[in-house]
Every structure is written in structure tokens, then in C-alpha cells.
């Protein structure tokens, strides 16, 4: 099920985040799995900008998986990926986790993951 909160924020300015978009675009061999809930205020505040960043970076839909969790934070993959907080975004390359964003980070998801991917 697609998360409505992943709908790209129409006012997010890709030009203002050019470095982030460039890094996300360059890493075209990774997948993004996003755990969230449309009912979650952190997801509603953070995921639309992340969706806009992925769109600006031309990340194909088949590399993005949305996982909706319930209010008890239960859903597919929650135990396997040790998901405690939402949103959580796991970035994988060849089945190996290479980066993870958890809702408590003090920078936006796209910037945080771009920094992790670029290091």
C-alpha cells in the first residue's frame, strides 16, 4: 500500500537542495524502503519532502517501497528490520543495508541519507 505522505511536496525546491538531489541521483543502484503511517505526524511532516527529493533525483518507482504500519507500529518487515520509530527509511544496495534514517534525526531525511551515501 502506498503511503499518501510520500506524495511529493509541491513547494519543495530542488534547486535549493541541489547537492542532495545530485547524490541521490548518482546512487542509482540502491533501493529505499520507507516505513510510516499516514496517521503519524512525524511522517506527515517529513515524508513529503523526501518524496519530492526522490522525484527530483529521478529515482524510479520500482526502487521505492512503502510499508504502512498500524498505530502499534506493526507491519511487514518491522521485526526483520528492527523498526521502532517511524518514519524509518532503509537504503539497501544488493540486499545489504547501507544507510538508515530514523525520525529522530535532526536533519531532513533526504539530506541525511545523501550524506550517508556519499561517505
From TrEMBL:
A Pfam family it matches: Thioredoxin
Thioredoxin domain boundaries: 3-119
CDD domains referenced in this protein's UniProt entry, alphabetically: TRX_family (cd02947)
Protein name: Thioredoxin family protein
Originating organism: Halocatena salina
Amino acid at each position: 500500500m502506498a503511503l499518501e505522505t510520500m506524495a511529493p511536496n509541491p513547494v519543495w525546491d530542488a534547486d535549493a537542495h541541489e547537492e542532495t538531489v545530485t547524490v541521490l541521483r548518482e546512487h542509482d543502484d540502491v533501493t529505499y524502503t520507507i516505513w510510516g503511517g499516514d496517521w503519524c505526524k512525524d511522517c506527515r511532516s517529513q515524508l513529503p519532502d523526501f518524496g519530492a527529493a526522490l522525484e527530483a533525483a529521478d529515482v524510479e518507482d520500482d526502487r521505492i517501497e512503502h510499508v504502512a504500519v498500524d498505530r502499534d507500529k506493526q507491519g511487514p518487515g518491522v521485526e526483520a528490520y528492527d523498526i521502532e520509530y517511524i518514519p524509518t527509511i532503509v537504503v539497501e544496495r544488493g540486499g545489504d543495508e547501507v544507510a538508515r534514517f530514523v525520525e529522530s534525526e535532526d536533519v531532513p531525511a533526504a539530506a541525511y541519507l545523501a550524506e550517508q551515501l556519499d561517505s
